[in-house]
User: Fold these one by one.
Assistant:
Number 1:
Amino acid sequence: MSLICLMLFFTIVSLSAGIGFKTTIEAGLKKATAFDASIILTNKDKGYNIEDILNQINFKISKNEKSVAYNEYVTGIKASDFLTTGDMDFKNVNVVFVKISDYNEILKFKNQKELNLNKDEILILSVSNKLINPINEKIKNNNKININGKEYLIKNPKAIEENLQTQNMANNRITIIINDEFLSGYKISTSVLNVNYLDKNREEYNKKYAKISELFLKGEYKSLNIDYIVGMTKDAVYSKSKGFTTILLFIVIYLGIVFLITSMAILALQQLSEASDSIERYKALRRLGANKRMIDKTIFVQTLIYFSLPVILAVIHSVVGIKVTSDFMNNLAKIDIRSSALVTALVFTVIYAGYFYTTYVGYKNIVKSNL
């Protein structure tokens, strides 16, 4: 019974977590791939602009693509300078700054309304679940922060959940949109060109951007004195993720269903074997005056107890397991695992009820045929 309980626990948690994890990855990919393609340039010391580098390597944007460029700046300010977070990995995260003019170009590129900022106003962006809550708490309690000795008002009522480039994952931990004058004395740390395709020749465009990464890895751009340059496409990110999630989901669902059916089959066989061994006891009950209805009720209660005990304990353990799994996945993306848990509960209940009813009928027929 203990082994069956463990198998049922694994079934419930794996099915719930497997379906939930797939949903989490898909939600994260949607945030991470805001554009059809992105070229990301990280500078060493020179503060190059992405457009200048692309001109040097003779990379052209075709007339069937539209693009927008923006620059990121790191000023030495950390997230812990104005946020309270218990996660040590995020205390020393560099705050990335982006000019309001660049951000407005991105908004215009996405056909969204442009924003105006006063000299003492900022916007905060983040897609990190470990930082979104501290940011929102900060805005709620005190919507002003001190940057380099000057107080700025956070204009947005809560963190803007937006990734400004296409990447393998949503990597915007914390970005501050600020007036251009503030960043006039800083060098560009990262420069990005975002691209959307205007026709259906996606495969051709994808190869073009993938080639940038290939040439960099081969050392073709050593003379440029850049840290790295990479071309990312939405289709490539989805393709890599799809293979991984499909394999993972297949393994989890396969093992979960196998464990569930195995557990139910063992319980059924155990009870049917018990029926054959207990024939003399039921004959004794019949001689004592028990009628068919009373014997059927006894069989029903006994079968129900045997099927329910490991399930009840497994469900109690699974509540804790699903809670821990849900907390872990929420660090990646805000996902409500209850929907996948309900699907698991439905599948579990159907198979459980089928095996229970079949076992009860089989047990009853064995006893009936021998009385």
Number 2:
Amino acid sequence: MSIRVQIRMLGIPLFIVLTLLTACNNKEPTPTPSSSPTSSPILSPTAGLPTPVALSPTPLPTSTPLPPTPTPAPITLAIPPLPAAWQKALETQLQQTPILDDGRPLRLDPAGSNQLQWQVLSSATGTVLAQRFYALAAPFATVRDGLTTEEFRAWWQGKAKHRVWLQADEAALLAAVWGQPVAARITESAPSAAQLADAKSWTLLPFDALDPSYKVLQIDEQSVLSNQLQPSRYPLALALTLQGPDAALLQPWLTPVLQPASNRDASRLTQLIMTGVTAMSRGTAEKMEEKGYLYPALVISDTLAAADITHVSNEVPFIEGCKVNNTYMNLVLCSDTPYWQALEAIGTDIVGLSGNHVNDFGRKGTRESLGFYRKNNIPIYGSGLNEKEACAPLLWEDHGNRFAFLAALAWW
């Protein structure tokens, strides 16, 4: 019988064959009396095998240390004086994300290779990131309506009789464009209209800081209050521009910081013009009969019609066939119905009826006049066929702004 045993040593298979021989017959061997019984020889498990060879481990390749990664050069940015809200937002952004998308750190440096600059919008160069509009404001009772750019420059340089009042943080910003103001009075907060009146001075205010106590002066016939303003012709429309080799990388980083991007939204401005009382009667009616019904509107129609809402206080009733009476001290007034053409030519949208002559022709005349307005779909307020109608407000909406017009008529 053969037995095959497989032994693995050092990864090399070795086979040892042990052969056991058995008797070919059934006779037991005759013992020899003089000899001791003998046993079968025991073979060593390693007998006849080759001497194992010691294998040394394969050495690992030696790695070469990599040179240290150089720190990328920072992007440098110079910034001018900024409004307080933008300055605070910029500082917060720098604390949170000082590294830009390309892995380079950002550092503020007055001599930075990239620069934010204030420029007059009409002559701005570089990428415009934001705009800021200013108004030349005076006391409300100021008679003058405006001045030219040259006159404004003279005022800024102290060559005009009106003194310059400025808020401290705004003064630094404006000086970046117009130079340092001469003989300016600098205050921590915006000067009040009362301060301006006492000092006979004017001030520059951010558009969003205006209130009705100021009169805003036009510059080069451009009014910052109008939604028809042409910024390219207005010297107090400033642009914050970005210039430099990394402008494309900095722009998306700066845009969320400089919000709102403008302090003036023309799409939310309503231009409302309200005239004084109108009475197309006596001398005016006589001229209209002589020169045509549109005569009173020839000079002023373009200005009035350009408004979003043109409001007229018409203090006399419309009476069909009203006769012109231009006699001295005539106080019973009316307008013939074709005279409406003059009010239509100036773009009249709303008529207020709080004038003290609307009832000169009594209740019958008032009914006729109210019927004329309603027949021609002319919005009115301040009068009506009953107390509820007469006291009801007229509601109006324009450019997202809501108005309520109120009037009371209580003559005698």
